[in-house]
Specification:
By secondary structure, the chain is of the alpha/beta class. The protein has ten helices and 13 strands. It has a single domain, classed as Thiamin diphosphate (ThDP)-binding fold, Pyr/PP domains (Rossmann fold, 3-Layer(aba) Sandwich).
């Protein structure tokens, strides 16, 4: 944003006198995600919750490999990188060493639901007192749009150019429903960030998750169904429409487990 007057801790005022409130829990670095990507909005909701709870200095985030790794550049608190898929294992170690810290992972589907499946399942089964934020766009976004465990049947990717065939490539993995069935998960919910109302619901879910951690409730697991317009080869608007028509029926939004009890059939 060129020629902008700003106070790092307050608002951004453009030359046209438009005011954009910013949170000090995000850095001043311009987001580098593809236009239309949901990561930036997810970051903002996470940052706002941390600001409102007053826990910026007490929060530690872990992000592994993939588009999620860019979170370090935009979130203004302690962050640690993990090997691909291993964020829950690292979060476990950090939380056990510093039990009074707020610890979360921020992961994509090619990470959490693929190479990191074991770490995800076992951390959730043990009931580690952490928050897991899982962004699901149905493909490997950063590395070239390859098929992921979450890729839908018939969905075209760079490694399934004719569409995913379950008989050859297996069925998509509903990892969120899978972890909801484990005794160590206390709160499991699925959201999106493509419309203002959905963004507000995500923010509420993130707040619940961090409050649960404060009370030592176990794992809070939040999935964010998002688009990847560059990987899907669509405009941002078309990718959101495709997401509504195809992703949401397979990955329905809403709470799955609340206060340690299932509120929806798996």
């Amino acid at each position: 944003m060129a020629d902008v007057t700003l106070d790092v801790w307050k608002d951004i005022i453009t030359p046209e006198n438009q005011v954009y409130r910013r949170t000090p829990v995000m850095t001043m670095k311009e987001l580098s995600y593809c236009p239309g990507c949901g990561h930036g909005t997810a970051h903002r909701m996470l940052a706002e919750v941390i600001e409102e709870m007053g826990i910026q200095s007490e929060t530690i985030g872990i992000a592994p490999v993939g588009c999620s790794v860019l979170a370090y550049e935009f979130l203004n608190f302690d962050m640690q990188q993990a090997a691909h898929g291993r964020a829950p294992a690292l979060a476990t170690a950090i939380k056990r060493l510093w039990p009074n810290r707020y610890v979360f992972t921020y992961q994509g589907d090619g990470d959490l639901a693929a190479i990191g499946t074991a770490e995800t399942i076992h951390a959730c089964n043990r009931g580690e007192n952490i928050v897991i934020i899982f962004v699901n766009n149905g493909i490997y976004g950063m590395t070239g749009g390859q098929m992921a465990p979450t890729t839908l049947p018939g969905m075209k990717t760079s490694t399934s150019p004719y569409g995913r065939e379950a008989i050859l490539m297996g069925n998509p993995l509903r990892i969120t429903e899978l972890v909801a069935a484990l005794p160590g998960t206390y709160y499991v919910s699925r959201h999106s960030v493509h419309k203002p109302g959905n963004v507000r619901k995500l923010k509420k879910a993130i707040r619940i998750a961090f409050e649960n951690q404060k009370e030592n409730k176990g794992v809070s697991f939040i999935e964010v169904v998002s688009n990847c317009n560059s990987g899907w080869k669509m405009t941002p608007v078309k990718s959101n429409e495709w997401m509504e028509e195809n992703m949401f029926p397979f990955y329905p939004l809403g709470d799955i487990k609340v206060d340690g009890k299932l509120v929806r059939e798996l």
